[in-house]
Amino acid sequence: MEWDSNSDLSAEEEEEDEEELSSSFFNDDDGGLGGMGPLPFPVENLLHTAPCGFVVTDAIDPDHPIIYVNTVFEMVTGYRAEEVLGRNCRFLQYRGPFAKRRHPLVDSAVVSEIKRCLEEGMEFQGELLNFRKDGSPMMNRLRLTPIYGDDDMISHVIGIQFFTEADIDLGPVPGTTIKESAKSSDRFHACLSAFRPGLPLGERNICRGVCGILQLSDEVIALKILSKLTPRDIASVGSVCRRLYELTKNEDLWRVVCQNAWGSETTRVLQAVPGAKRLGWGRLARELTTLEAATWRKVTVGGAVEPSRCNFSACAVGNRVVLFGGEGVNMQPMNDTFVLDLNDSNPEWQHVQVSSPPPGRWGHTLSCVNGSHLVVFGGCGTQGLLNDVFVLDLDAKPPTWREISGLAPPLPRSWHSSCTLDGTKLIVSGGCADSGVLLSDTFLLDLSMEKPIWREIPVAWKPPSRLGHTLSVYGGRKILMFGGLAKSGPLRFRSSDVFTMDLSEDEPCWRCVTGGGMPGSGNPGGMAPPPRLDHVAVSLPGGRILIFGGSVAGLHSASQLYLLDPTDEKPTWRILNVPGRPPRFAWGHSTCVVGGTRAIVLGGQTGEEWMLSELHELSLANSVS
Amino acid sequence: MFRTMSSKKMITLKSLDGQTLEVEEAVAKKSLMIKNMIEDDDVMDDDVEDDDEDHVVHLRKVTHKVLEKAMEYCKRHVDEDENKVVNENELKAWDQDFVVKTDKSTLCNLLLAAYYLNIESLLLLLSKNAFHHKTSEGKKPMEDMRILLECQQ
Predict the structure, then answer these.
(1) Count of Cβ atoms closer than 10 Å to residue A492 Cβ
(2) Using CB atoms, which residue from A112, A233, A243 is nearest to B36?
(3) H-run or E-run covering A435
């Protein structure tokens, strides 16, 4: 509904119509308006072409005062503009100008619906009993449309009214005589004869005979129903019928669906992909759900990481891969930082000059925190095992490492696993402590606090201690532990067990998902990955985990991909076949996930990690170039 | 207008077909539509004498059968609003059972009623159930969904 096209009629339009209508109107035998004496309104206004009332209210003011009414409104309701400007339209529900409250015959359910639509910024269509100034009833077929201002707030509401007769016997209006009220209804009838809208009333009875969800408006279906479904459900909704197909093509709907399904942290990461490379939300959701577009690619990059090293850690910040530390050729722990910006047209490894780097180490973990920071924990340094925490602010000028002295730190360790919860909490688990003892504890450090304190998560039962396993976050605040080299009596075996923990519970506990409680006992259900350690675990939006790589027991290929959905009722391993040439090797500590959709494997071709000019990329969704 | 003091105030709901249903006020108010209608004290007609009559809430778009089902759901979920301890797993199981026990012809109407009466959690439960991507067993899942939603292809 355009603001300008429905403002007061210009003089020209009135003249055109005068000739058409004058013959039928003024020659009416029942006298029409002529028999009632002069009206307080100019006659030309009767020749309005659009037979509807038009009202505009100010939506910023909480009581929605009227700021404009057209002449049809004035004519039909009997209220002049100056009497109603500044008031809320509800006076039309009062019978006559002296009533103080809504007439009981006015359906309060409809009033409630109007209120709800206005609150939710949705269009309203419906019918309501209204009253003219003289107390005579009429049905108002009403349509309310919110208008948005510059700042995406609703600034005005436009109301369009088709008034028709109401077949109701009300008795006398308070404050008038019977004779007068009868006369006024005649006049009303005569007024309207020129204005019959000619549109049948819509059948809005919901529960009579054949009914369908499709009688709800597009807006309601999209906003109130579809936006709450998962991406996979929306995909199948599109096949139900034409209208739902059209609705599910809407990008905004997909954006809301993705946000609801994957959480704001994940969608924020996905949104950070540069515009040129970003698919629409609909396509992204589909591809990340079906994984139909997953491929392996080889990427060649420039620059060099020197001196060469192995056992470093890599982690991505946005589209930049950060590498820290490692074990040099003489087994000395390194402490330098390198960055590879994959946004560049010709990405190159670059050494980052930092003021006070952490002590050198290998076998440590590097995780992303607070969007653009990285946190290092543990590892093996020159003096032995470490349990310190350092945070890198990559966007500071210059990039700076800062030590976080957390109280009550866990035992120093290496080859532990870590992950980040809510973007602020670092979780570490297991690993190898002094004298080669394997650990099975789980610690949490809340980096959003002023003075972070380490806290062990107390559990009644722990999975067997291990190193080289992975921790992945899914479903908001749940973590999944997979694989590693696990303790079994006096021995150690590679494991393929899956354990989960829900950190939103008051008393979180480890649960075994697949596989027996003890390592080496094999896994029921689906094609389980061969046991392994130092593998790669990628968290997909929606909660699934993708596993590949690592040091695999037996002669199995490390590049086979395995998929598990821990949110299923009966989680089952599935193999994912992906075109393109996979790397022969992939290690957890030297693989990172970029932009939520690409796993970058460093040094995967030869197993020699210091060959860092050729990367293997597993992209899970297409990138539009 | 309303009688005060009683902690279990009852409200009479009147459906499309004229039948009435008595429910506790707290239960009825889970429907934001009904809550607005009750709390909106704008309704009074000096000419009509019905001081002794309990206020009746007219819901002209919902049949008695569907309204009963909706109130059954509201009754089970009323504790959530009062911050009482809720056993989530039990509630989930009850919800699933509730959906399974509701006959197919009522489900669609109940979904529309959940929207109309503005019972957010019921709408969510029914939407997720109606549109859930089922891996087919026997009947084509699309057909099931179409019948449930009563759409023509």
Answers:
(1) 20
(2) A112
(3) none
Question: Are A116 and B66 inside 8 Å of each other by CB?
Answer: no
Where are the alpha helices (H) located in B82-140, listed in sequence order?
88-101, 104-116, 120-130
Whole-model pTM? 0.70
Report helix, strand or coil for B130.
helix
Q: Are strands B56-58 and B10-14 parallel, antiparallel or unpaired?
A: parallel
In DSSP notation, A340-383 reads EETTSSS-EEEEEP-SSPPPP-BS-EEEEETTTEEEEEEEEETT
ipTM, 2 dp:
0.78
- Residue A97: both structure tokens together: 């100008």
Contact A258, A284 (CB under 8 A): yes
Mean pLDDT throughout A13-42?
36
Q: H helices within A209-250, ranges in order?
A: 218-220, 231-237, 242-247
Compute the average pLDDT of residues A126-151: 90
pLDDT tens per residue, range A215-254:
788 888 888 888 888 888 887 788 777 888 888 888 889 9
Residues B61, A207: C-beta atoms closer than 8 Å: yes
The DSSP symbol for A225 reads I
B92 near A CB under 8 A: no
Does residue B33 contact residue B118 with C-beta atoms inside 8 Å? Answer: yes
| Radius of gyration for chain B, computed over Cα atoms and rounded to the nearest angstrom | 18
pLDDT above 70 covers a percentage of chain A that reads: 81
Rounded to 5 degrees, φ, ψ at A453 are -125, 130
User: Each residue of A116-148: b (16+ CB within 10 Å) or e?
Assistant: bbbeeebbbebbbbbbbbbbbbbbbbbebebee
Distance CA A26, CA A190 (A): 11
Q: Show residues of chain B in contact with A102, CB under 8 Å.
A: 42-43
B95 or A232, greater pLDDT: B95
Mention every residue, 6+ apart, whose C-beta is less than 8 A from residue A232. A289, A542, B133
Q: With an 8 Å Cβ cutoff, is B2 touching chain A?
A: no
Nearest in space to A282 (alpha carbons), one of A306, A247, A317: A247
Residues A229, B128: C-beta atoms closer than 8 Å: yes
Sign of the alpha-carbon dihedral angle for B139, B142, B144, B150:
negative
Which element (helix H / strand E) includes A172? none
- Do residue B112 and residue A216 have CB atoms under 8 angstroms apart? yes
Give the CA diameter of chain B.
62
Q: For position A376, what pLDDT does the model report?
A: 96
Give the model's pLDDT for residue A606. Answer: 64
- CB pairs < 8 Å spanning A and B: 128
The pair of three-digit structure tokens given for residue A512, joined into one six-digit string: 């075994």
For residue A235, give how far its alpha carbon lies from the nearest alpha carbon of chain B (Å).
Answer: 8
* Banded model confidence at residue A624, pLDDT cuts 50, 70, 90: low
Please list every residue in chain A whose beta carbon sits closer than 8 Å to the beta carbon of residue B43.
101-102, 104, 106, 108
Q: What is the pLDDT of residue A267?
A: 82
A422 or A47, greater pLDDT: A422
d(CA A284, CA A265): 16
Quick: pLDDT tens for A429-461. 999 999 899 999 999 999 999 899 999 999 999
Q: Do A207 and B62 touch (CB under 8 A)?
A: yes
